[in-house]
Design goal:
Strand order of the largest sheet: 1-8-3-6
Shape: globular
Distance between the termini: 51 Å
Number of strands: 23
Amino acid sequence: MSLLSRTRAAARPGPDEDTDRLEAPVKEFVEFFGGQSPYDRLDADDLARLAATVDVEFFSAGEWVIAEYEQALDRLFVVRAGSVEVVDRGRVVDVLGVGDTFGHISVLSGLPPALAVRAVEDTLCYSMPDPRRTVHEPERLQFSHFNTLVARERLIAAGGPSSRLERPVTESMRPVLWCGPEDTVRDAAQRLTEERRDAALVRYGTGYGIVTDHDFRAKVATGAVGLDAPVSEIASRPALSVTSDATAWAAYLSMVDHGVHHMVVTTAAGDPAGVTGVMDLVGADVHHPLVVRSAIAAARTLDQLAEACELMTPTMVELWDADVSSAQLGAVRAAMVESVVRKVLELEPVHPSLGGTPHSWLVLGSVARREPLPASDVDTALVWQDRDGAPGPGAPAVRDAATATLEHLVRCGLRLCPHDANASHPAFGRPVEHWIGAVDRWIGQPWESTHLVLASALLDARPLTRPRLGQVVQGKLLAGSRHDEFVQAMLRFALTDRPPAGFVKGYVVERWGERRGRLDVKRAGLRPVVSLARALALRAGDVSGTTPERLSRAAQEGLLSTEEADTLEGAFTLFHGLLVDEEIEALRNGRPAATHLSPAALDPLRRRHLREGFRAVERIQERIRSDRRLGLA
């Protein structure tokens, strides 16, 4: 009898035990599985049938749950308490916690398990035979076949910067210290010192502002404001705030966005509940982006701005070394890039052709989705409006103005889109009336591939200046969600981005049989997931957010199953994390960053995970191609 069998046998009740004692555990099984995916899709009767097959198994820390070279499993496992680590030839590749299922691929396929599993701590698992043979509606159990990926952020030690940023912001806030608007600067400084605080709120009737140690240094220490002046003269108003249900990460990113070191935590009703600062959230580990953000905000010339931007690359490397996830790294990178664009527009003289002309600058692509790679280029667009009914500036003059701005961005170290998705190009710089006419053509003639390419770019747009003007174009495009032919064309277009078939002897095998020695992970992995998420977001009528947020919304709308959304998000995380890792190493070593890599240079584990990721994406693409509800079948 194997160790696994002995553990299982010990967990089962003997034949003479009182069966009434089982009623409470069965109820607990039903309640537990009813809150876990994919079992939460079962009705009450099927949950009860499932619960009747469950065994409780205990594993001591370090004990193998699934050993290497185990034969095909006849039971799958769900972690009830504790955690397990997934091991590939001695290397830990994932950590699973409460609610995670493992072993199911072997049970469902009849194949030996590819990876071993070991208890990290004393762990309680629920095990059961193939549930599809137990329940009446097995089609509701849609297990993800794409699991046990290299999920870097899940392997970060508890308590590290990344895990701390996932906590509720309320865990990092301090009680509010109030000052009256007529209190003097001297009195406010004394109170902050006595209370050992670095920020206080200042009342303004029904509103409030915030005064921080930075305000004292910048406005009082320089002599700009005297000690006997009202503290209201140095307070910032309105104070940046975040609601109490936000995570520390959401608060931190908002600080990077706005270039501040403190913010107010409010109740759902908008009342101040506390104050938090960047050091409260993450300590000294990952405050570097705010150093860059402050340097950008303080720049008074383009030369100073370019100097501040030199800090961006080392900051990306430091964040990665501090175990910040690739998703968080992308969001911080996007925030810093946007701050550079805004600062360039603030510092450069207004071009004569745009003087007095309302215009909106937009970012596109991965920066707009807040998921760029460390060395991603910057895609831009420009919308302008006629002046009081008079003809606006000519397109050539505006392109000259846009070119000048883009040259300043390059001077600051940003890379422009090499495929002409730049505001200086006629396709991306137009008067608002021309934009509206173009969108009408895209929607009305969806068989033109160029129209679908341009529509895809604008669905990812986010305006940085004059948002109402910039949003006109995307709002017009979103109206296309009511046109079935356009939506179906966008979905078919998204499905043309297909992952490769796999790897053979270090070569990438494309689906048409061609072999390549280099793998473009962005094209082969990221783009199929990003494109599908975008098209489904259009179908749902809401294209806001990141790719994972779009996938989650597609599941909420019933366009994807929960398992499909989780699988695609896992694939996206794998591809994005791998690319970030490659680009960080290139930046660290002074090499040009690229999205291509050699399959032969990958270790077998990474090749396996990439292959599984590609296959998982392909399976979901095939399912969507046959979905009659979407009109593609």
